[in-house]
Write a structure and sequence with these properties.
mainly alpha, two-stranded parallel sheet, 2 helices, 8% strand, flat
Length: 71
């Protein structure tokens, strides 16, 4: 899972390279107020934590392995 500050093709290329070279799934998302996100107003540390927890809950609900690398 990549917590990215800005959207754009360099990030997508990096995620593809990681997935191909490591043979793993890579999920990137923009937290509210940054990158290509919609709504949410200005970014804040509290919103970053909230969005990261929401992603973690989604991964758990989708059956993701318990061992994850978060960057």
């Amino acid at each position: 899972v990549t917590l990215a500050e800005r959207g754009g093709s360099p990030r997508v290329r990096l995620q593809r390279a990681l997935a191909e070279r490591l043979g793993c799934h890579v999920i990137g998302f923009d937290y509210r107020g940054c990158g290509d996100s919609t709504g949410g107003g200005a970014p804040s540390e509290a919103r970053l934590r909230e969005d990261a927890r929401a992603m973690w809950r989604w991964l758990d609900a989708e059956g993701a392995p318990q061992q994850l690398l978060v960057h």
